[in-house]
Design goal:
- It is a single chain.
- The chain is an alpha/beta fold.
- It has 2 domains: 121 residues, Cytochrome Bc1 Complex, Chain D, domain 2; 81 residues, no CATH class.
- The chain is 29% helix and 16% strand.
- It is built from 7 helices and 7 strands.
- The strands form 2 sheets. The chain has a 4-stranded mixed β-sheet with strand order 3-2-1-7. A 3-stranded mixed β-sheet has the order 4-6-5, with no helix packed on it.
- A hairpin with a 5-residue loop joins β5 and β6.
- α4 crosses α6.
- The protein is elongated.
């Protein structure tokens, strides 16, 4: 007959494994947060594609002040964010709230979810270190863009001319860009990091260096800035 201690060993190991799995690590969670950082900020007033996740713990879903892009499904859900609801949401958002607008397939690794939940809890309590390389918009893992209000003459747009399928963009440092119209994106950024009024900023994008975005402070500036001119 085996000693009682040996008989209990498998159950002990199972219990310890479950305990280790159940305990979230906020430091590891800060690393997991990188998969969220292209769409979510942890700054209280900084909304990106998705709402700020600052103070998410205990908050009812769909209630961040100033965020206007919630789906009706999420606003009607009545969910309050806590360990249980965040775990479920991070595993499969569409199964929790069908028809919500979050284009995210979920995190399959249970430990990674647990660590991320621990990090978000710590963020809400003001106890978490900021993750490195937090992204704002763009590709996952991209760095936070520079403050567009501080853009130099090399990025400030002086004029934009359109002729047939080409935009000719004159920068304030004298450089001229001729861009196929399909490769130019017109954007606005009304945040504190957006360009100054009347001073749009051009940003290069794309691996080939042939795609650009011009960012304006407000929509009303766009039509005033672009002229039809084939001279």
């Amino acid at each position: 007959m085996k000693p009682l201690s040996l008989l209990c060993l498998p159950f002990t190991l199972l219990f310890l494994g479950q305990a280790a799995h159940a305990e979230g690590n906020a430091v590891r969670g800060a690393g997991v947060f990188q998969i969220c950082a292209s769409c979510h900020s942890i700054q209280p007033t900084r909304n990106l594609t998705g709402p700020s996740l600052a103070n998410v713990w205990g908050r009812r879903a769909g209630t961040v002040d100033g965020f206007l892009r919630y789906s009706d499904a999420l606003k009607r859900s009545g969910i309050v964010w806590n360990d249980k609801t965040l775990q479920a949401w991070l595993a499969d958002p569409q199964s929790v709230v069908p028809g919500n607008a979050m284009a995210f397939p979920g995190i399959r690794d249970a430990q990674a979810r647990t660590d991320l939940v621990a990090y978000l809890h710590a963020v809400s309590e003001g106890k978490a270190p900021a993750p490195q390389g937090v992204a704002r918009g763009g590709m996952m893992g991209a760095n936070e863009p520079a403050d567009l209000r501080q853009a130099g003459a090399d990025a400030q747009v002086a004029s934009i001319r359109h002729c047939r399928d080409t935009y000719t963009v004159q920068r304030r440092n004298g450089k001229t860009d001729r861009i196929w119209e399909y490769n130019l994106r017109i954007k606005t950024d009304s945040s504190a990091n957006g360009p100054r009024a009347g001073v749009p900023v051009i940003i290069g994008s794309g691996m080939r260096g042939d795609r650009f975005s011009i960012v304006f402070a407000a929509p009303a500036e766009i039509s005033r800035a672009i002229t039809e001119d084939c001279s």
